[in-house]
Amino acid sequence: MNTSVAVFDVIDEVIAPLSAEVPERPSVMEFYDPEFEIPPVLADTEPLPGRRSSPVRSLADEVEQYTRFVAGMSAIGLAPGGEVTPEAVGLYRALRGGFIRGVVTGVFPARQEPWEVRFFGDEDYTTVLHKLGNRARLRSGFLSELPGWVFDGLPDRPPGPGQHVRIETDEGGLIPRGCEGAVEQIRECAARPRLGTVLVDLAVRNAILAEYPHGAFGLVDNDLGRYQFSAAVGRTGRWTVTWGPASRSTAEQWIVEAVQSHA
């Protein structure tokens, strides 16, 4: 194999339809506030995990903080009429301070608009926002609901035929000799009539697990069925690329395992 073939060459081919239609995806860190705090009057007795307790504030400072907090909630429809509920506070906490943050972007020839999902979560709550054109749906609930909610709206497709492929690059991200067959299998599937392309960006705590080109995970639907692809760099600096038949549950399980391994 020509040593100029790199992991990014292969993934670029796989996600080409999506890159052409959505050249810029939202950042997983959008809406994140590293200094996010819940006003004392609304907070539980414990600070957010990983955060230090705030210094004692004056009453005027607390009132100002509360006013800003409720205004931020109201701006996205979480405090209608200024009413604040514990559930809405948990939702806003996940949105602004949650350590689980992700974006799913999909393009499908049968749909006129790209499919976009943003999701946020912490130890307890999750917030999932689905967007398709001018339509949007916001859902909130317990963290256990996150994987299933994220992929609501994904078209049904059966797993495609073929074997699972795993390629390990050298330290420079180049695909070594002996992997010609595996690379050709990926490229042949990617070149078939495309029915959908989905890319998942995910950050858990301080780790960017997938935000291409800083790692990748996604789904490809072609005329044969559905496939998953991934690219991740290990501690040695070598990349591992995977490809194989997949289903919706494959993507859900990837999120579950990614969160569990870094939470």
UniProtKB/TrEMBL annotation:
Pfam families membership: ESX-1_EspG
Compartments, record wording: Cytoplasm
Record's keyword terms, sorted: Chaperone, Cytoplasm
Annotated family: Belongs to the EspG family.
Protein name: ESX secretion-associated protein EspG
Organism field: Amycolatopsis camponoti
Taxonomic lineage of the native organism: Bacteria, Bacillati, Actinomycetota, Actinomycetes, Pseudonocardiales
